Amino acid sequence: MAASRTLLLCVKDAKSGVLSNTNKFVALRKSPLQSTSRITSSRRHEARWFSCSRTRWTERLEQEDSKSQPVIDRQRSKVFHDADEAVADVKSGSVIFSAGFGLCGTAETIITALHKRGDSLTDLTAVSNNAGASGAGGLSPLTRSGQVTRCILSYLGNNKTLEQKYLSGNIAIELCPQGSLAERIRAGGAGIPAFYTPTGVSTFIQTGGIPTRLGPIDPKTKKSAVLESGTPRETRIFSGKTYVMETALTGDVAILRAWKVDEAGNCQFRYTTKAFGTIMAKAARLTIVEAENIVPVGSIDANDVHLPGIYVDRVVPATVEKKLELKKTRPTNSGFESDSSATSNSTTSSTKSEALVRRDRIARRAAKELKHGMYVNLGVGMPTLAPSFLPTDVKVWIQSENGILGMGPYPTEDEVDPDIVNAGKETVTLVPGASTFDSAESFGMIRGGHVDVSILGALQVSAAGDLANYMIPGKVFKGMGGAMDLVSNPNQTKIVVTTDHVDKYGKSKIVEKCSLPLTGANVVSTIITDLCVFEVDRVNGGLTLTELAPSVTVEDIRGKTDANFAVAESLGQMDE
């Protein structure tokens, strides 16, 4: 039997209001299509659910009171005058699903209306891939104002304000791998209470090791107290492989932005704006869509409907201009290459010049891992440079986990489109033959092993192929994004790590055993640094040095590597 089990008990006549509204995620919920005004007297008996795990009993109360949630009136038009009217009856304590990826596809108009509610709308739980930027955009106004007191996210990114609020104990954050988050939402909308996934095995996701809420810093230990621990996952073995159980997520209100919406609620999205929109709309009791264009019924061809109107309850005009999180451009008529601003400044200091040389050396070697016709996923940062070093006769299909297959280079100034961004929220283009899709589809490709190679960065890599690349406890809390999903099937998808050999303090990033929280255990096959290349024996464990950078010796590598390694009989040389 698994060490952690879940026991569900139904108790009649449970009193309402027992729990905080932030704990509303349960397996059995009212259909999001059912009007709250039609609750019969037989529904007055509520269900209290108990979850038993290794560490604690967690009581979850499902309240189905017709007065507690907005009424969905099927008799009236779905088109509302404005967002203020559409959110006027959203209740404090609601679980809000906020679609979008970074600032791409976020419902800025609706978020602005929610923010205007002020003290009349508080104690919100926000479920989103990201929580906006530090300045403005996305959920930032709601987290800054304190209206959102709890978040379920995969990635904080560059939102330093939210990161500091978490580290100081002013907000609760549940981190969830991006693919698991998408699948949990998809499952919630499909009536599936739980599922097993390889994502997160042998990590803090499995053990519940990431605190949800921190407390004051202990002056003796200099560490924050843990006021709310993470939730350990149940595990099960299928065909000799370990999987963790994830439960479905459902919400009270989903907010999303679409390009075109007809008066029946049918939605059409542009490119990467559909990342979480289509799945969140299906998993919420009430879905509000802000439309860039509201059109009559029949104006959208049936083949172009990405989200059927059955999942949409309210439609409002989008009045807030869409935002660009990271605008990246390239010179006209150039292909894959680094950001022009970085290149133009490369000669301003010898230190930066040396850093660029190291970076290009790593990217040039990483490009050799890519063969013609491969499907490839590139992590944020250095991995994205690899395609610029491919021979002209080698073409690969680049997959971006936010929903692109066939990603192209940065756009020229004239090609910039805020609806086409990569996993780093940077503006990009699409190559001929490209396709775009939602996040559930994207991570099905990834977990299913359909991607040939994934190139990722690292904080640490161990001799056994363990990877740590998302968190430094107490210092850096950004989230794992899609990294745990990307390494979840290393037998089908080769994992290549690109990294500087040492960190900014001169400490080796290649270690015998990782001291930082793992992204995945025994997953890396090849390590490419600015000094050398290691191949990893994932079956027996151990590193073999196979290539050296120019002017670098084996003794240099031994002096800068905190892991034992063998040396190949015939050492190759990395290109400069």
TrEMBL record:
Gene Ontology molecular function terms on file: succinyl-CoA:3-oxo-acid CoA-transferase activity
Biased segments, Low complexity type: 338-353
UniProt enzyme class: transferase
SMART domains, A to Z: CoA_trans
Record keyword Iron-sulfur present: no
Keyword Cell inner membrane: no
Pathway this chain belongs to: Ketone metabolism; succinyl-CoA degradation; acetoacetyl-CoA from succinyl-CoA: step 1/1
EC number assigned by the record: 2.8.3.5
Pfam families: CoA_trans
Region of interest (Disordered), residue spans: 329-358
Assigned keywords, A-Z: Mitochondrion, Transferase
Any one GO biological process: ketone body catabolic process
Active site: 401 (5-glutamyl coenzyme a thioester intermediate)
Catalytic function, reaction form: a 3-oxo acid + succinyl-CoA = a 3-oxoacyl-CoA + succinate
Family: Belongs to the 3-oxoacid CoA-transferase family.
Function recorded in the entry: Key enzyme for ketone body catabolism. Transfers the CoA moiety from succinate to acetoacetate. Formation of the enzyme-CoA intermediate proceeds via an unstable anhydride species formed between the carboxylate groups of the enzyme and substrate.
PANTHER family: ACETATE COA-TRANSFERASE SUBUNIT ALPHA, KETOACID-COENZYME A TRANSFERASE
Protein name: Succinyl-CoA:3-ketoacid-coenzyme A transferase
